[in-house]
Structures are given as C-alpha cells and as structure tokens.
Design goal:
49% of the residues lie in helices and 16% in strands. It is an alpha/beta fold.
C-alpha cells in the first residue's frame, strides 16, 4: 500500500516537473542562440541555478565562459554584475563600504557589485586572500555585513566564477574553504570542429543574437522549491555516501592504491551537493526521481575541487578526475 502511495506521489510530482521543465527548455534554447556547442557548460550553469549553488568554470580564454553567464542573466531577467578580479582589488570593491556624507554629517552604505542575482567573478584566482574571504560570507550565508549592518542578498543569488588554468603568474590558489563553497567546478574544453565553424561564421556576420527574457524569477524560485521534492531512493543515498567516503577512506572500499595520492577527502558539503545536483539534473531530464546515472554524470563536477592531492599524486601527474573515475569504477551502482 505504501509503495502504491509513493508511486502516486511520484506520478503527481512528474506532472509538476514537466510543467516547470518547459520553461527551462525555453531558457536553454535562448542561451543556445549565443552559446554554440557548450551544452555541458550551459547544463552546469542551470544545475547551479536550480540547486542554489555557486559554479566555478575553469578553462582557457575564449571559451565563452563570461558570455554564457551574461546570457543566462539576460534570459532569466535577473540583475547582473561583473567583478574583474585583480591583485589590487580590495574587499570594499566587492561588498561595498561606508561613505561619509559631509552634507548630512553622517555615514551611509554604498553597496558593492555583490548585490545582484548573478555575480560574475572573472578570474577569481587573481584576487588576494582578503578579497577571497570577503566573498565567503556572501557565498555561504547569502548576506553581507558592512559596518554594523547586515544585509540580505537578493534571491536567487549565484556566484559564477571563472579561472584560467594555464596562466599562473600573479594568481592566488583558492583556499580549500573557498573552493568548498562552490557546488560545481566545471572544466571547459574546446568546441567541436563544426561548432567552431558556426561560431566563426556568426562572428564574421557581426550578427549578435538578441537574448530575450523567457523565464521569470518566480519560475526559477518555483523550480528550486520543486527540486527539494524530487525523490532520492535510500539506495541512491547510500551510493552517494559510499562515493564521498571512498575519498576519505579508500582502503575500506578496496582502493588502497589511492591512499597515498590523497591528502584529504571530500567534505560533508560534497554529499549534500551531490544529492542536490543529482536532483537538479533529474529535473532537467524531465524526471521526478534520481537514477544512478545522474549521480555518475555529475560526480566529477562536485568532487574534483574537494579532493586534496598529495605530493606523490602531483609527482606522478595523477589528477582528481582520475581518482574520481577509479572510485566510480569500483563502487557498484544500485
């Protein structure tokens, strides 16, 4: 009887998912007017939006990272701000500051660019640690404190950061605490041959597509609420936990060869975000329940920046992706 009741709940939830998913299909179509051949990146941005999580995009220059984020903001009709991170940036340049008004003989708050729905932190690894720490409260608590006043950030609030993996001169490694705040870290690769041909032709004609707002903020907030209801079976939950615990205690999962390559494993945020991201991915695929393939598909993006590599791993050029691949290959899916 309980199983029949659960099946009916999932059926009703599926109807709601299909209804709201229509708007996100329109959103993807609108984004794809300007972004050609980067479906992986677009999907991850939408998962971040749906899962209320921040996204870190890593890739060489010219892969449309900034354009994708700007296009998403335009298509959702959200407030957008861009912060170009540089070594001389100050925390006040991000969150805002107290300003003295001579006329009123009083201090007033000047809000910084962090007060937007979509905040593009361009080349985030170029900013020093003081600026990185200024972002932490905003990213985690969705609020900013200036002077003695604490202000809530708008909803939804999403930090979409980019970093360049090849030019390390004048950059600062993101602290583990900062990296852990990002739901996903996505590695962006070059477009396919035919996709690049289309990009070249589009630029040559000087025709820049006009991006319309095709989805309201209320649609986004409704979808966020629905994501929390998407069904995750106990076996899927165990699968997620096994995957995360294998990064901490690989020898318990028959992966003793990984022990020397790991300096620390993924934090509890990894389990939380892997479940949320899997739910968001199921929603984008028009489902009201998570399947093991959802977890596998998003696992690298959730785990790659939460695994600490040892000196031995770096010496042997073992990457976090390779470690996650070995874990995925070893742990049996339900």
């Amino acid at each position: 009887m309980a199983e029949l009741h659960q099946a009916e709940d999932i059926r009703q939830l599926t109807e709601k998912v299909k209804e709201l998913n229509y708007f996100f299909s329109l959103l993807k179509q609108e984004i794809n007017k300007a972004i050609i051949g980067q479906e992986y990146m677009v999907d991850r941005l939408l998962i971040g939006l749906l899962g209320n999580g921040h996204v870190l995009l890593e890739g060489v220059p010219g892969l449309a990272k900034t354009l994708a984020i700007r296009t998403l903001a335009d298509a959702v009709h959200g407030d957008f701000s861009r912060i170009q991170f540089t070594p001389d940036l100050l925390p006040a340049d991000v969150v805002g500051t107290m300003m003295y008004n001579i006329k009123d003989n009083d201090f007033s708050i000047k809000r910084g660019p962090i007060f937007a729905n979509f905040v593009l932190a361009d080349e985030i690894n170029r900013a020093p640690s003081k600026v990185q720490s200024a972002l932490l409260e905003a990213m985690q608590e969705k609020q900013v404190t200036i002077g003695d006043e604490t202000m809530q950030l708008p909803k939804p609030f999403l930090v979409l950061a980019t970093q360049n993996p090849i030019d390390q001169e004048g950059t600062y490694l993101l602290p583990e605490a900062q990296s852990d705040r990002f739901m996903l870290k996505c590695t962006i690769t070059y477009p396919e041959f035919e996709d690049e041909r289309k990009i070249m032709q589009m630029v040559a004609t000087s025709h820049q597509p006009e991006i319309r707002s095709v989805i309201s903020m209320q649609n986004v907030l409704d979808a966020k609420e629905l994501i929390n209801q998407i069904y995750v079976d106990e076996k899927i939950e165990k699968y997620i936990l096994d995957m995360v615990f294998a990064t901490r205690f690989p020898e318990k999962y028959g992966l003793s060869e990984l022990k020397n390559y790991l300096s620390f494993g993924a934090s509890p945020r990894a389990s939380i975000n892997l479940a949320i991201a899997s739910r968001a991915l199921a929603f984008l695929k028009n489902r009201a329940f998570v399947i093991p393939e959802d977890v596998k598909e998003i696992a690298k993006d959730v785990l790659r920046h939460r695994i600490g590599l040892s000196f031995e791993a770096e010496a042997e050029e073992i990457t976090a992706d390779e470690i996650v691949n070995k874990i995925l290959g070893k742990i049996q899916a339900p």
